[in-house]
Amino acid sequence: MEFFHKVTRFPFMNTRKVWYGLSAVLIVASLALVVMRGLNLGVDFTGGVVVETNFPQPPNIEQLRGALAKSAVAAAQVQAFGSSRDILVRLPPDPNAKGDQIGARILEIFKTVDGGAKLQRTEVVGPQVGQELFVKGAWALVATLALILVYVLLRFTPKLALGAIFAVLHDPICVVGFFALTQITFDLTAISAILAVIGYSLNDTVIVFDRVRERARTARKLAIAQVIDESINQTLSRTLMTKLVTLLVVVALLIFGGETLHGFSAALVIGIIAGTYSSIYISAALALDLGLRTDDLLERKLTKPEEIDGLP
Amino acid sequence: MISYPRWKIVLVAVVLVIGILLALPNLFGEESALQLARDRSVVTPADRASIEELLRSKGVAPSGAFLEQGRLTLRFRSKQDQLKARDVITEAQPNQFTIALSQASRVPEWMRNLGLSPLKLGLDLRGGVYLVYQVDVAGAVKQQLDHREQDFRASLRTARIPYQDVQVDYPADEVRVLFRDADSLAKGKAAILEDNRNLNLTETTINSAPALALRLTPQEIKEREDYAVQQNITILRNRLNSPELAVSEPQVAREGIDRIAIQLPGLQNSAEVKKILGKTATLEFRMVDETNNPFDAVAGHVPLGSKLYYTRDKQPVLLKRDVVVTGDQLTDASFQPNTQDGPAVSVSLDTRGASKMLKNTEENIGHLMAVVFIDRSREKNAQGVEVDRTTEEVINRATIRGVFSNNFQITGVNPIEGRELALLLRAGGLAAPLTEVEERAIGPSLGQDNIDKGVNAMVFGMLAAFVFMAIYYKLFGLIADVVLVANVVLLTAFLSLVGAALTLPGIAAVVLTVGMAVDANILIYERIREELRNGVSPRAAITAGFDRAFSAIADSNVTALIAGVVLWLFGAGAVRGFAVVLVIGIATSMFTSLMGSRALVQVVYGGRRKVDRLSI
Question: Which residue, A97, A125, A153, sits at the end of a domain?
């Protein structure tokens, strides 16, 4: 078997208890963070007002806060947004506030501090809409997971499918935990990123499973744990390469994409890392502990005779 | 020879050429432009010629011009030229056109004639205002019930049939008419049915009185709600497209069951537009009650059949309760700034309104007729609760001097009001009140900033991927790079073709798609390397690499596609922009990696008699 000479031989299955432990820690920590610190929900979900302004020179934020307080504007947050010259003001939902008025009013107040202040962006979201978007976002997550489960069930045996789905669940939980930890604003784009991560992180799992199925048929005498180990090792280079290149691209997005895409690209980075980890260490190991046997993989061969022709 | 069907190579080439052609318009960039529209008619080629001539003579010749959907777009080399040209046109031909400032692509005319157009930019890249209104559909149903109540009363009164009461039960969606006896019930039913056909009236007894009940079915309620939303969309569109507002390319679309989303690209200050959009102003024509003293009415003695109103300068006026003509019978209205009686709104009535007006003026020559201006607006009171406020004012009282029917003028308006009133009357009344629930306004500098950042991220991200691929996979890596460029071209082509708007998350999706398209290539190449290690010949390795990686690529893309489609269905605004690009990007990347890259490998290695080594 000398053509495997470049292939790694990590004992993934023997050490799987360690990785389960690590995953358990990650998941528990993520959930604990979400419960304890909560998510910094964006205006999309809470409703309210966001006003972004730009200054020719970095303003003194305390001074801006003071000016707002003096004019009786109950700003919840005044903070730098991206650069120190961009200032974001956030207000809680106020039934009396109308978007154009509040934006213009804040600009006027800021102009007393620095005449060169410019209004960049105003967002006004009614509390009702915010709540609806949150519920819709949650449903989108559930629907995506359910549809992917159905697809994986059709494509693989139930044990592999369950392993895959758990590995997939693992990733958004880590991403949400990351948002709770860093308190980066969790908004609609973050949800889009999570959905993209779910769809994308299944990639490697599918590739590993494809290989497990293929190996199980060619090397029937091997124990299933060994088949899985070999499959993961054989596909390791492509799993890592594909993720590496995608990470390169997404990191470019994180660096150059600006503040608006910050949460989005951060979610992708964390999601891709978590996804790669879970598809190498968790998904196949879980299938093994669910009692996956070589026979499970051979059964499908009989029901799908056209695949026999493809084998050497 | 490595075998790969020739037709597939041809197919890839054809798709690519079409893609390049479709993506081409995006290379030309944009210029400041003016958009000219005419009120209720189109701008003709003759207009175009005369305006171009005019501008040339004033030294601000446009760098391009085209007519589209009855609007003339003129492009200028600079912002200064644009503004100067606007002044020149308004000065030379006042009130001829309405002029909106906008941006237009430099795409040459022959491309435009082929129907090729550049990508549309979303509001976050272009700057502009996004508004979402909630339609009060329950209010629309209430209105329907109120109309029925009034109709029933009118029918019974005209037929002189005694009745106890007409009640509306809003929670039950029911209108009830209570009679004194069975005889008047039978007559009343006949009278009502004669005026209102196809009503499903049921006979019941309420408080031991014989009664008629009309209940709206769930079907009718749903129809009424749908109608209210659709009607409002039409009205909002009319208002936005009216020359008085001069908004360029407004978009109005239904969102969900009872919401309307409006996109106003390039708009800076939403206050003016919002003021017009939410308005429900209309007019009523009533005869003046000349026999009673309005000051008695102020003291509390309003005579039966009359109603107390006030004029602009707070003078009480008594008007007859019966309305001669209402605003919804108006078919057209336009503002006349300079008539001999000052600013005026000239109006046209539909046939029903015209015949009523004719009859009324015939009967009442020498009497006073009043025009009542009604403005319903929805406001929040001090407690933050929404209340409907109705302002009714008599704007004009005039003696009827002659008989008229469908065309006449209303004076007594000030210029700003007159313009607005004409707009609102022409666009029609809202079928149900609107509440603003969401607004996002993005300034133009932030838009440009977003474009720069998005483009930077894309360029650096792609560059990183390109360099990596070329170093790691050598010639095959270069092939992948070419394929990646082709992927972006095809994606751009497709987005330009379907007219989907590119948003900042959309650009992020392009970047992500590039990452995923690289994936597919890596899967194929790693498989080829593995086959080579297994001692397979280079040719067989290529074939096996592409064939065997196929199922993995397909599987992994299907799951990403599922996520993309769910996002598409669920998302609104910027999120949908992300999903659209993601879904289309997955499709184009599958095509380019599986077929495009295979075809290119074939072109590079296929012609060789013997392939000893692969540069991979």
Answer: A125
